[in-house]
Design goal:
Two copies of one chain form a homodimer. With 139 residues, the first copy, chain A, is α+β, with helices and mostly antiparallel strands. The first copy, chain A, is built from five helices and six strands. Chain A has a three-stranded antiparallel beta sheet with strand order 1-3-2. A two-stranded antiparallel ribbon of chain A has the order 4-5. Chain A binds a DNA duplex (25 and 25 nucleotides) through helix 2 and helix 4.
Chain lengths: 139, 139
DNA sequence: ATAGCTGCAAATGCTTTGCAAGGCC
DNA sequence: GGCCTTGCAAAGCATTTGCAGCTAT
């Protein structure tokens, strides 16, 4: 079966990072990058794929998320010790994490410059700010 | 068997937060709070207990860490989506996370005020700074 | 043709839970 | 004594892996 659009954007992006543009990867790429920045978990992306009628296994979703991350198309966000989040925005930026719903939202850059209680999203209050400076050995 | 020191510090701390001072909880409290600030995982604390000759099950270590956290004696630190870290320093502060070794270290407050590459621990370079602003609904 | 990918199911690793036995007040 | 705690083993959950079959080039 060969229903891959020969020169779609998704195909070009995948080729550009050295990943073979398979049907599953193209479909997931369209879900991820086709409509602005997104925050997903493996499970949530799998569900979206199901709803969109895309045939993918959960294992492939996991593989694909990691391949995309390694390729620099995605970024991992650690906010919860029981779930892995992935962000289609790979630029340096930070997040609001809604503890009850488990949802993530980008922090607009103006929030960073003047963070005050009144700047928080409506209906929310600050639970905690976590800053983790990740280091690696420079050898 | 009743070898609980009637008025040890550990016992007082536990009573103060409404936890029954059992042998296991007292022993773990001594390991945790007896020698300055610590960062532990359930597994690492369990190992320390074994080395110290303390009889505790891993399940009890998990339970105890959560009870201490709920009681405000410990704080959870999320830096890795596959492990839970606990910090005996419950004050507002941030961490260095050594990606290779999985170790945590407090960031001295002077680092926060002027964070520059030269301020990083020797032999390390910056991998990434993650800031998560955790929100909860104020209802 | 063949190197790489997918899907399933089984395995893993950390964490939680159910329940009987034991310990603290 | 009564309720809370412990410990074990089993269950749970997210994630990873092994391997046979499929697919893009």
């Amino acid at each position: 079966m060969a229903d891959l659009q020969p020169n779609s954007d998704a195909m070009k992006s995948l080729r550009a990072v050295g990943l073979r543009p398979t049907r599953q990867r193209m479909a997931l790429a369209r879900l991820l990058f086709g409509q602005g920045n997104m925050h997903v978990t493996a499970e949530s992306l799998y569900d979206s794929a199901q709803e969109a009628g895309i045939q993918v296994s959960l294992a492939t979703v996991y593989n694909t998320l990691h391949q995309f991350t390694t390729a620099g198309l995605l970024r991992q966000v650690v906010v919860d010790s029981s779930r892995c989040y992935f962000d289609t925005n790979v630029d340096e930026h930070h997040h609001f994490y809604f503890e009850e719903s488990g949802e993530l939202a980008d922090i607009p850059s103006e929030f960073i410059r003047s963070m005050a209680p009144m700047d928080l999203p409506a209906g929310t209050e600050l639970s905690r700010i976590d800053i983790v400076v990740r280091l690696r050995s420079n050898g």
